[in-house]
Structure formats: C-alpha cells, structure tokens
C-alpha cells in the first residue's frame, strides 16, 4: 500500500514537472515571437539612408575590382525602375531588401508555426494561424514604413512577406521531418 502511494506521489511530481517545463517552453516561444516582431518593427522605423547598402556595395566592388559586362535586365516595382546595366547597385540592393523580407518573415512564420505545433494544433490550423500572423505583422510593417523618411509602403511587400512565411513553414516542416526520421 505504501509503495503504491509513493509511486502515485512520484507520478504526480513528474506530471507537475512536465507541465512546468511545458509552460516555460510556451513562454519562451512566445517571447521569441515578440522579440522577432520588435526586430521587424525596429527595422521598419529606420530611414532609407540607415538601411542603404549601395555605398558599401560600391566600396566592395572597387576593392575587388569587379569589371563585369552586365546584361540589360530591367523591371519596375512599386513605381521605381530598376536596371542592372544602368544602376547595378540599386538593382542588387533591391534584391537584397526583398530577400531580407523573405528571410525575416520566414523566421516569424516558423516561430509561430513551431509554437502552435508544440501545442498540438493541427497542421492546417497551424499554417493558417502562422500566415495570418505574418499578414498582420507585414501589414503593420508597411503601415509603419509610411512614416519613415524616403521609405515606400507597398501591398506587394506583404505578398513577398507571405511567400517568406510559406517558405519558413515549409523549411520548419522539412527539418522536423528529418529529425523525426533520425
């Protein structure tokens, strides 16, 4: 009888410990999401000059003595014309900025989705909620950019951010599947 009571007492302690660990993990996951959102919004509040990498690209190309003959690739995005031949630094910076959008929102979506999956939310619900969070934060991000000097706000960037969110969820799922196999 005493042995049975001790076993039950031990199981109760173990369950309390597991619940406590789960709460700490959930709190950490939520904290990481909020920190990442704060990073996104702090970057949104920066002026174009604070984020301009063209001077750095020019110095780098001079140090490396890059003398390439570039094809004439041109396109328009949000009312701006980009030409690889006429202004290669602006062209490269544009792709750097859009890649940064994809990366930042991929991380956000992976953090949100991972936290939801840890809570045993279904895959569909997790994907949907993670993408809703990405859309909301991206929309607020674009709204904040309206008030930053020489920054443009574009609904197209929200689309780019959603693509990043989808990639983040896909990469998270692939990595999780790999670890499950091992």
UniProtKB/TrEMBL annotation:
Keywords (A to Z) from UniProt: Membrane, Transmembrane, Transmembrane helix
Annotated protein name in UniProt: VanZ-like domain-containing protein
Matches recorded under InterPro entries: Phosphotransbutyrylase, VanZ-like
Positions of transmembrane segments: 23-43, 94-114, 121-140, 160-179
UniProt keyword annotation of Signal present: no
Keyword Transmembrane: yes
Species this protein is from: Paenibacillus silvae
Domain VanZ-like: 30-173
